[in-house]
Known about the structure:
5 helices; Cytidine Deaminase, domain 2; disordered N terminus; alpha+beta; 5 strands; 5-stranded mixed β-sheet; 173 residues
Amino acid sequence: MSGAKSCGSAGSGSAGAAPAVGTAAPASAVDAGMWERLRELAAQAMERAYAPYSHFRVGAAALVDDGRLVSGCNVENAGYGVTLCAECGLVSELVRTGGGRLVAFVCVDGAGQPCSPCGRCRQVLSEHAHPDMLLAMPSGLMPIDEVIPDRFTKADIDRVTGAPGQSPEGDRP
Ligand SMILES: O=c1ccn([C@H]2C[C@H](O)[C@@H](CO)O2)c(=O)[nH]1
């Protein structure tokens, strides 16, 4: 895939700049060039946002474990509660273009600065996360397990329903 993977540490990024990748990160960490590419793609997506109500435009971009890049923007609605966050568009593109696991994720606001995914989007993203997924948060790079600790998963459902341990992919038609 384009954009060499390298080891790095979480928490070393800074707002506005490509998050730095240090020394003790998961194997899925990507290099500074890929983080910059994701930031640019997120900013391009943000320019497409439909946000006539909040005027808060959001763009998101991610690297998939097969090297694909996916992105999305927020799409608001007169029914405020049915607004689609940028992350929802990104995950929709992920699934539509073949699925896979999200390795690295960037979300930016209208000023192109790192934006924190809302709680619902953390859950949405985590369903498709590589175990070592890193997110460029306003405070720096953060692993998915810190972004949404003890998340609700299919295992929690199966524990109660007794359903066989199928993978989510196995449920696809
Ligand atoms: O993680 C988030 C949080 C908010 N928004 C959007 C929804 C709404 O259009 C605007 C203000 O909440 O920002 C996103 O796209 N992603």
